[in-house]
């Protein structure tokens, strides 16, 4: 019985570990997206705004900035999706943690019961041996 429960504990732990790895990957992805936004903001800050010249040059730079802003918006949407995934992973992780704890509790309880049963059998054997030795000692 305890062997089966030990396998169930192992499976529950593997599930929990998988969710933890997924959460870490998700957090790394979010961090990279924020780095991408930071890089784009750096690019935007290096675009010179013309103080004189043709309107088409100004419009071209404005379009470049708009393209960067659109890209930032897209990345923010991706971050939103990743954060939703993160919340889902956290919820699944909580469930997996509870399942792991439940399996571990059941395993420990079964192991304790098995130890108690083995101790009872050992005490019974010792009592039997003691009785045999006592009878053998009296007959001498």
For the biggest sheet, the summary is:
none
Overall form: rod-shaped
First-last Cα distance? 46 Å
Series of H and E elements = HH
Beta-strand content bin: under 5%
Radius of gyration, taken over Cα atoms and rounded to an integer in Å: 34 Å
Task: Give the overall pLDDT as a whole number.
Answer: 91
Total beta strand runs = 0
Number of helices: 2
Indicate the percent of residues in helices. over 70%
Query: In terms of structural class, how would the helical and strand content be classed?
Result: mainly alpha
Residue runs with pLDDT of under 50 for 5 or more positions: none
Key traits:
rod-shaped; 140 residues; 93% helix; mainly alpha
Describe this entry's structure for a reader.
With 140 residues, the protein is mainly α. It contains two helices and no strands. The chain has helices at 2-46, 55-139. It is rod-shaped and about 125 Å long. The protein starts with a helix and ends with a helix. The relative contact order is 0.13.
List the SSEs and their pairings:
Layout: H1 2-46, H2 55-139
Helix pairs in contact: 1-2
């Amino acid at each position: 019985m305890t062997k089966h429960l030990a396998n169930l504990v192992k499976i529950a732990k593997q599930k929990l570990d998988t969710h933890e790895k997924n959460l870490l990957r998700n957090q790394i992805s979010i961090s990279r997206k924020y780095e991408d936004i930071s890089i784009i903001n750096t690019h935007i800050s290096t675009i010179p705004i013309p103080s004189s010249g043709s309107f088409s040059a100004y419009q071209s730079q404005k379009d470049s900035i708009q393209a960067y802003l659109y890209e930032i918006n897209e990345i923010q949407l991706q971050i939103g999706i990743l954060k939703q995934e993160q919340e889902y992973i956290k919820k699944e992780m909580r469930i997996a943690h509870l399942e792991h704890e439940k399996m571990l509790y059941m395993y420990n309880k079964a192991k304790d019961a098995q130890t108690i049963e083995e101790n009872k059998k050992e005490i019974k054997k010792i009592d039997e041996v003691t009785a045999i030795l006592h009878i053998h000692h009296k007959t001498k």
